[in-house]
Every structure is written in structure tokens, then in C-alpha cells.
Amino acid sequence: MPADQLLESRDVPLGGLRGLTVHRTLPQRAIPTIGAWCFVDHFGPTTEPMAVLPHPHIGLQTVTWPIAGQIRHRDSLGSDVVLRPGELNLMTSGDGVSHSEFSVGDPEAPMHGIQLWVALPEATRAGPADFEHVTDLPQVEGPCWSALVIVGTLAGRTSPARTHTPLVGAQLSVKAGRAEIPVDPAFEHGVLAVDQDVTVAGDSVPHRQLQYLAPGRETIVIESDVDTTVLLIGGEPFEEDIVMWWNFIGRSHEEIAAARVDWEEAARRFGRVDGHGDQVIPAPPMPEVRIKPRRRES
């Protein structure tokens, strides 16, 4: 199991070279997953619009969490909802789904949020696609902190969102000073500094960076000079090998290559997202080398 360490973000254009810039902290070469969380993109605050045309997924759940701004989600299941801060969009891809995401509302209003993926386990990854829009998330609080529980359980409060492995995800509002958050010692965790620098378990975590914390602790201490927001994720270590490329999570190079062909050929498994005509995001070329499973360094 890796030791506690800082995972630094890298900038990535979302939806193409001219897309919204996101700050990606997961996956990393040394740590591809935290629990089953396998992808963390932090975007904004920015007045750049989100404009992501239909694109496919397999083998994962998308977790969309806005902090400011509104996002319209449409998918091949027929879902068409506007997501607002404090609400959760959870899309389960199963063997195939496609969706689009566009910012809506006041074009001058800032966009700020986090997009995450959760790897599905072997037992359910080829199941049916599903979508949940959750507007009533549980709240919990302790000395110097409060939280919205996005998925899983924190401090005895459980989100109604459906997960397939033991997980936690929560937005924490931490007051200036020292907050001590109770957590499951069987979980590994990550703490994302959402809006400014913080100290996590004694280590400095700069704005936009993610602190990895190994299993074995019953509390996580977060310190800040001012009131701040952080994102807490965690789960039981995910032991399955995954092959992750573009928007797909599979178990072999061949599975990924087949999904790419199906998307390019508009196969039935990915359906169609209404409202965009024939516009979709094309799949990039497959790499010239064989895609290998992502394995963490010990």
C-alpha cells in the first residue's frame, strides 16, 4: 500500500483543445485509484462555458458535482436535467452509454465544480446503464466542519445514490482552525483543496492538489487559516486491474479497442443523445502500443 503523498494536478482541455480547462489529479502513475475513484477533474471558477458534445463511456460511473453554475445533462437513456449546486448527477455506464454536458443560465455567471469517475467492479460493470439526479443529499456536521454526503456514508449519514463498492464522497465546509473528520479506517482517502491551500494530516496541500491518505486512520485532521471548502473521497482499496483509455474502463486492450470501434460505427450499445444532430466527439486513434492495466506502485 502506498504511503501518504501529494498528488499534483495537471491542466487538461475538456472536450477538445479549445475546451474548458480542468485540473486533473487522478489518475496518477503511482496511484491510479483511491478506493474505486479513478478520475478527478476540478474546473473553475471560470466564466468559460462548459460545452461537451455527446461522448461514450463503459465500465464506470460519472459523478458530476457543481459548486457554482448550472449544467444541462442529456444522455442516451433519455435523461434531460439541469444540475445545480448541492445536487448530484450519477450516471452508471454499464456496458455502454453516451451523454453531453453544457453550461446553461447566465453566461456571465461563474462555473465551478468537480467531475469524478468511479470504476465499476467485475460483478456489475457489464450491467444496464442508469442515471440518477439526486437533489436531497444528507448533511452532517461536527466541531468546525459540516458536510454534504455525495455518495456513501460519512459520520453516520448515508447518501441515497447507488454505488457498487464501499465508497465515500463528501463536500466539506471547514471553518478557520482545526477540524477533525471521522472516517472509516478500512478506507484509503483523498482530500482535494478546492478553493485554497490547506493542511491535511500535518502536510501542506496547495490549492487544486489532492492529498492521498493510506488506510488505517479513524480521523482526518484538516487545518486552515480561513473558512474553506475541500472534497473528501475514499473507499476500500480497489483490487481489480483496470485498463483505462479515453472514456473507457475495461479489463483488456481488446475490450477497449472494440468499444472504440463501436462508438465510431454508432453501435446500438451507446445509443443516441437527442438535441445535437449528428455532432459527437470522435474517438482518438488507438495508441500504437498495447494498453496495459493501471497498477499502483507499492
From TrEMBL:
Residues 22-118 form the Pirin N-terminal domain. Transmembrane segments: none annotated. InterPro entries: Pirin, Pirin_C_dom, Pirin_N_dom, RmlC-like_jellyroll, RmlC_Cupin_sf. Residues 177-266 form the Pirin C-terminal domain. Pfam families: Pirin, Pirin_C. Belongs to the pirin family. PANTHER family: PIRIN, PIRIN-RELATED. This is Pirin family protein. It comes from Aeromicrobium halocynthiae.
